[in-house]
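Dear support,

We are seeing what looks like truncated structure output for some complexes. This example has two components. We would appreciate it if you could run it in full and send us the complete token output so we can diff it against ours.
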Amino acid sequence: MTAPASVARERPAVDRAGPPLLRVRDLKKHFPVRHGTFGRVREHVRAVDGVGFDLWRGETLGLVGESGCGKSTTGRALLRLLEPTAGEVTFDGIDVRALDREGLRAFRRRAQFVFQDPVGALNPRLSVGAMLEEVLEVHGLGGPSRRERAVQLLELVGLRPEHIDRYPHEFSGGQRQRLGIARALAVEPELLVLDEPVSALDVSVQAQVVNLLEDLQAELGLTYLFIAHDLALVEHVSDRVAVMYLGRIVELAGSDELYRDPRHPYTRSLLSAVPRPHPAGRRSRRRIVLEGDVPSPIAPPPGCHFHPRCPHAAKDEACRTVSPPLEGEAQNHLAACHYKHLSLETRP
Amino acid sequence: MSEPLLAVRDLRTWFFTDQGVAKAVDGVSFDVRERETLGIVGESGCGKTVTSLSILGLLPQPPARVMDGSSVRFMGEELVGASEDRMRDLRGNDISMIFQEPMSSLNPVYSVGGQIVEAIRLHRGLDKKGARAEAVRLLDEVGIPEPERRIDEYPHQLSGGMRQRVMIAMALSCEPKLLIADEPTTALDVTIQAQILELLAELRGSHGMAVLLITHDLGVVAEVCDRVVVMYAGQVVESGTVHEIFESPAHPYTRALLASLPSVDNPGQRLVSIPGTVPNPTRWPDGCRFRARCSEARDGCERPQGLVDLGAEGRAARCWRTPEASRVGPTGSAS
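Here is the complete output from our reference environment:
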């Protein structure tokens, strides 16, 4: 009577020789804050404040961080669900920010968004079949055999053909997220931006949906931007992981590398704070508990955004005044910290 | 062994609804000993929150009803059937509770200090000035910076972590012997969660109180609990020390739950998922309620089944496949 044997995942190697499918440079999204009787804009919430990364075909990039770090806004701004304030987004050579209405529609056929809350994202008055057929119709896909295609999509995400005439409320949380995925896949996209796709689900059901996403990626050659706050989950699904803090990426590395040898003090404390399901290790583990809360993104601290909470012994004037660039000795492990090469206890 | 602080025996809380009788809690028994942290863990709908609300008498009756034969004894006193006055008295003095979302438990139109001062004056009979001084001391103790200033702020001015600290300060204001914490860190970010868990552990030591921690998060359980009760479909399916539960789980549900966790420590493996969903509480299946989703189920699992002792004190599982269960034979289910 042992637990079901865990199966090692086989992940195809990602080819990073060619140009990336998605290229993001210095992306910004600032929201105006209106005050007073005349609604004058005096300040901005700098939700995303200079984010850049590349995403190659067939790859999963995890985007992690705590509430308010800008990870969801980044995902939305990439697909222009929110208009970016500044920066470059290039998808397969296309300048996404320059697209007109028609161009944007064609782009969204290739890049889709999956929301956290499958209930809020589904129209309660449309049956599953009607919902999927509507998506196909809007994009001029499927032709006369739309219903057949809808059945195919249901089977693709592990639902049954007879589910086609049911309504969203008749499904469980896990099944609704499968529907959300089916709808995104209806247009046969290449890129999925998944915003906390399983965080509303219980762990046992979460595992079902994560396995489904991995199977679909292998089968359809999909590229994922996987946004989540759960570090263990992100490590599990991602090839590379980007850690965000106050609107910026503070560390970006291969997922094994990042979890084995985090360089940024924020990543180090974040990883040390994750509760682990191993009671035997709890006394020997060293936890770096951060002081205080995340500062307001309206007036982020000057220099390194993390410096007021940073536990690094080397913290000095440079941290308070100069914003550290995201860079590294190795191209595949970048960190935005002046003292990333030193252990937390070491002074320069 | 002396009498436990809290002894729950065969607790059954049913909801009488138009769709039928939902047996949300259906024969739950466990003890909380003095100064220990007991975790109740399970997924949505397993009955863990209804269990805690039943202990405190906080469920609206109807539709809920705590069924005959249920017993909740706190320091030897039977709470099932106790008067509302007596329960209110206990809730303020000996048992406190904190919830997942502190914003909805705090009154938005009063300053946080006002709310703590009210609690202190009500339960400890201090005068206004003394109560305010005590409130500042408590806010300081739960790690709120500048408590003299913060005491006059309103809940919306505080972050989620700070609000939960205020809730904990209020819970501590009456020096409870038992703190019931229902998903106290679920709404918080992981770094703030670490702060709050650390604080709870510290306070448990310094105040000598017991904690009943209700959570869906096995990681949190492993970090802070001494003993664990695993619930599924309104019943306890396994209980034991935190080491027993995590290192030698006896129930297939516990094993599957642990295997379905993505872990920072062993990435690169396919997650084990549990097929299907939790059955409907108005129509629990006979015998083992997990058997339709269980990879180890076989003929016989539909027989009525009770929680079987596995030897060590407080160590039990509700599974026909354990060697102990086959020796004991059908015990007749507790429900």
